[in-house]
Amino acid sequence: MGTAKNAAKKIAVLGILTGLSLVAFIIESLLPPLFVPGAKAGLANVFSLIALILYSPAEAFAVVAVKTFLGAVYAGNLSSMLYSFTGGVVSMALSSALMYSVYPKVSLAAISVAAAVLHNVTQNVVFVFLSGSFLMFANLPYLALLGVLSGAVVGAVTLFVFKCVPQSVFEKLLNKTNKPDKL
Questions:
Q1: What is the Cα–Cα distance from 75 to 1, expressed in whole angstroms?
Q2: Which residues contact 36 (CB under 8 A, 6 or more apart)?
Q3: Whole-angstrom Cα distance, residue 92 to residue 103?
Q4: 102, 116, 148, 150: least CB-packed within 10 angstroms?
């Protein structure tokens, strides 16, 4: 019985993280792009990073996938799903690899920056590949810089959440006696 209750709690938490991620995505979609067409701050990624820290790469990928699909449906731009999904999967793969191999030698902020840069580069490469417009590679320096900035913000917000949310919340979510050991 306890296992079913834990599974239901995990699904509920992942649903909340996905919902918050979608809300952040929708709010960002209403704002003008940052310097480069289509560029966003990526605050929705805070919630997939939290899922990675609390649970595992599989759960974080689920948050990314569901948010990407629902975000594309909401925005009415299903073609953007290919760019967002590819960027999200590749960046989450990097985040997962770094979290489980070099963290805490490398900070959460640095992992977030690396993932954000890779996300932007991946989206640009996919766009160039599909459109054949190699001139879009000229945006790579700007997208990399935006990735550094947005990754730093996402990393800082994620750390803020884990520093400011009472430990008892994590205990209840994870049935553990302390905050996630990854932080």
A1: 40
A2: 139, 142, 143, 146
A3: 15
A4: 102
Three-class SS state of 166: coil
Interatomic CA distance for residues 47 and 52, integer angstroms = 9
Measured between alpha carbons, how far is 181 from 170 in angstroms, rounded to an integer? 11
Report in angstroms the alpha-carbon separations of 95 from 1, 22, 106, 136, 173. 33, 20, 11, 26, 22
Residue 35 · residue 146 · CB < 8 Å: yes
Q: In this structure, are residues 57 and 92 in contact, taking their beta carbons and an 8 Å threshold?
A: yes
Residue type, 108: L
Tokens 């840069």, located at residue: 117
| Alpha-helical runs (H) found in the chain | 2-29, 45-54, 57-75, 78-101, 108-131, 140-164, 167-174
- The model scores a pTM over 0.70: yes
Structure tokens at 131: 């459109």
Distance CA 89, CA 133 (A): 23
Predicted confidence (pLDDT) per residue in 81-93, tens digit: 888 899 999 999 9
Give the C-alpha separation, 139 to 180, whole Å.
38
What is residue 182's predicted lDDT score, i.e. its pLDDT?
57
- Reported as a pLDDT band with limits 50, 70 and 90, residue 181 is low
Share of the chain above pLDDT 90, in %: 64
The first and second tokens of residue 63, run together, are: 């948050």
